[in-house]
Amino acid sequence: MRITVLTGAGISAESGIATFRASDGLWEQHRIEDVATPEGFARDPALVHRFYNARRAAASAAEPNAAHIALADLARAHDLTLVTQNVDDLHERGGSPDVIHMHGSLARALCAACGERWDAPDSMSPEDPCPFCGRTATRPDIVWFGEMPYQMERIWEAIEGSDLFAAIGTSGNVYPAAGFAQHAAHSGAECVELNLDASFNARDFDRRILGPASQTVPEWVK
Ligand SMILES: CC(C)NC(=O)[C@H](Cc1c[nH]c2ccccc12)NC(=O)[C@H](CCCC/N=C(/NCCC(=O)O)S[C@H]1O[C@H](COP(=O)(O)OP(=O)(O)OC[C@H]2O[C@@H](n3cnc4c(N)ncnc43)[C@H](O)[C@@H]2O)[C@@H](O)[C@H]1O)NC(=O)OCc1ccccc1
């Protein structure tokens, strides 16, 4: 079966990584405008680097959970396209061979001057020179609000060719990811969401499986 799976912060919650909209979520402690926009980075790059250095430390201290591992099993049994909004590497450490990080990755750095990318050190600062052009315009390789997500052609193609589309642990209010289920439904795919509670775009799904992902995903994959 051709399957496209979209994951969000909820799949990494049980690995101890904060989600965005929970009461103790990331957006409770930081204004999106300050830490996840190009304008915020231009205003205060040191603040933004501190924010992502802390998330990079949290991600490396975390372990993949049963939901990440179950999706690696699914990839062995089916033609799976795994798309994540998450910037952690728990899918890869959970055994998933090929993950599309549509919002970028904590593991990579990007030079805003020459566009080159390289493996990010644990801690980055505005003074870090680009190893390619030497200029100090280094940023995390993360897609911020107002920026175009990565590999969108490949994602739309996978969705249009899918028999089944599943969204796991995402609240469905950030676009274009929140529009994938509707697009999949229009392309004839069956749509299912696995979440703690119904998402903002719940109407786009044929059915939903409620509960913690580390329990529902292995059950669903079986
Ligand atoms: C706020 C929203 C309204 N704004 C947008 O959508 C904007 C603007 C916009 C575009 N189109 C629109 C249409 C309508 C309205 C607005 C827009 N979109 C953009 O700016 C996008 C880019 C958006 C990407 C921003 N970057 C992120 N992340 C990286 C940074 C970082 O990580 O720091 S978004 C970030 O927030 C989103 C958070 O959502 P979730 O992952 O779902 O997390 P959340 O906490 O919300 O929910 C967790 C869920 O899990 C569940 N859960 C919790 N625990 C568990 C558990 N244990 N088990 C199961 N489930 C669980 C909970 O119940 C909950 O449902 C993710 O996408 C995440 O990646 N870019 C763009 O449109 O570019 C254009 C363009 C076009 C041409 C040329 C140039 C540009």
Automatic annotation (TrEMBL):
Amino acids binding Zn(2+): 111, 114, 130, 133
**Top EC class per UniProt?**
transferase
Q: How is the cofactor bound?
A: Binds 1 zinc ion per subunit.
Q: Which cofactor does it need?
A: Zn(2+)
Catalytic residues at 103
Q: Which HAMAP family match?
A: Sirtuin_ClassIII (MF_01121)
Annotated protein name in UniProt: NAD-dependent protein deacylase
